[in-house]
Amino acid sequence: MASSRILELSSIIATNTERIDGFLTSHGFPYPTFEIDAPLQAIVHFDIASSVPRSGRATFGQISSSCGLTESDTRQLLRHAMTNYIFQEPEKGYVSHTASSVALVDVPMMGRYVEMVSSELWPTATTALHLTTKIQAFNVANHTNRPFYEEIARFPDRASRFAVAMDLINASESMKPIHVVENYDWAGLKENAVVIDIGGSHGQISIALATKFPHLRCIVQDIKGVIAEGKDMLPEHLNGRVMFMEHDFFTEQPVKNADIYFFRWVFHNWSDKYCIKILRSLIPALKKGASVVINEFCIADPGMIPLHKEKELRSYDLGMKSLFNSKERESEDWENLLKIADRRFLFKGARVPAGSSLAIIEACWDGDGQ
Ligand SMILES: C[S@@+](CC[C@H](N)C(=O)[O-])C[C@H]1O[C@@H](n2cnc3c(N)ncnc32)[C@H](O)[C@@H]1O
Predict the structure, then answer these.
(1) 120 partner at 20 to 30 Å CA-CA among 45, 78, 256, 366?
(2) pLDDT top residue among 367 and 291
């Protein structure tokens, strides 16, 4: 009967609520709330976040004169945001922060992330009909023929904002560098082993690796502007152990005989044809036994993981389609990709460490070396 299913669901909710309650209490964690001190993060950016005092409140008129919108527009905008718990109106006519809105003030990266999502990703989602043509949604939305990275590299602020968004994503629990740092045998690599972090952005993984494993030397490769920022941001004590190098991964890999060629979240931006080109560009540099380590999503079969996780992966999958005409891949896709690039890439498997969103996919080079 329908009602017994509802009772069953409410009992599941009660049981799981008790588990969450027990977990929070036993770890001394605060309870989730939208109050200002709650550890929640904002999902939407409003320029006016800094016009509202961090504690206390402001009228719509005060906010409007500091942010430059009309009072009426300010009220419309904020009252809509409030339905998503972004700002609140504790008393009619007065606005104060919630945990979500104050994060825009307290976590500067958050504003940059939201700007990136709303200006780079959202416009492409509304042009999904172009899935049926050879034209990418990103190109339609941006009135350009250039691919994503080439286009944003023309606007230093967009390239920089994208890299900051990557930094913020890497700060989320299931994306933290620690998952790849702790779930691969970096410790077993020889003294002064060289890791090439290709498309490594600001070098977050290399920084985490070099910090935990002093015997490693890491070289981060990326496009020009990103590399310049990475160099500036590198903690001084890692100078000489984490290096930055401008390199286009579609061209021959300049660092020969490294131990590990590492790619994190790079291939999902490219369709198979381009991934194969990236992999083949490595070949002249590879010594026998070199490893290619890929840290990416590895989509499970439908229904095999909790729905909320599958939803996240399928959303990324469609996002990759509209931005790059690419996709997220399954274990078999990874194996095939490596095999098609060159049969000497021996696929060693794909596994998702507990707590990590990304899988570790590994191949070993079985060529003679050149
Ligand atoms: C999705 S981001 C991943 C960044 C980083 N590996 C991480 O996990 O945070 C992809 C990276 O590839 C870089 N990239 C794009 N095209 C490139 C190219 N042709 N050569 C080198 N790097 C490139 C981008 O600048 C960006 O940093």
Answers:
(1) 78
(2) 291
Q: Buried (b) or exposed (e) across 272-305, using 16+ Cβ within 10 A?
A: bebbbebbbbbbebbeeebbbbbbbbbbeeeeee
DSSP of 89-151: EEETTEEE--HHHHHHHH-HHHHHHHHHIIIIIHHHHTTGGGGGSSS-HHHHHHT-SS-HHHH
Q: Determine contact, residues 62/56, Cβ cutoff 8 Å.
A: no
Give, for ligand 1, the residue of 120, 167, 201 to mutate: max count of ligand atoms closer than 8 Å to Cβ: 201
The CA distance from 368 to 370, in Å, is 7
**Protein residue with least CA distance to atom 19, ligand 1:** 248
Which of 116-120, 165-169, 295-299 holds the top average pLDDT?
A: 295-299
Nearest residue (by CA) to ligand 1, atom 6, is 200
Closest C-alpha among 93, 95, 116, 114 to residue 50: 95
List pLDDT tens digits, range 27-85. Answer: 877 676 655 443 353 234 455 777 788 888 999 999 988 878 889 988 888 888 888 88
Q: Say what the pLDDT of residue 44 is.
A: 40
Compute φ and ψ for 319, nearest 5 degrees.
-60, -45
Q: How far is the CA of 230 from the centre of ligand 1 (A)?
A: 12
Question: Cα of 60 to ligand 1 centre, how many Å?
Answer: 42
Evaluate whether 331 touches 350 at the Cβ level (below 8 Å). Answer: yes
Ligand 1 neighbourhood includes 200 CB (under 6 angstroms): yes
For residues 156 and 137, give the distance between their C-alpha atoms in angstroms, rounded to a whole number: 22
Alpha carbons 274 and 39: distance in angstroms, whole number = 40
Report which protein residue has its CA nearest ligand 1's atom 11. 199
CB 364 within 8 A of CB 348: yes
- Atom in ligand 1 nearest the alpha carbon of residue 167: 9
Output the pLDDT for position 122. 76
Provide the 3-class DSSP secondary structure of residue 188: coil
Taking the CA of residue 236 as centre, how many other CA atoms within 13 Å lie in the half-sphere pointing to its CB?
Answer: 0
Backbone angles phi, psi at 189, to 5 degrees: -75, 150
pLDDT by residue (tens digit) across 235-290? 999 999 999 999 999 999 999 999 999 999 999 999 999 999 999 999 999 999 99
- Is the CB of 170 within 6 Å of ligand 1? yes
Instruction: Enumerate the active-site residues.
Output: 268
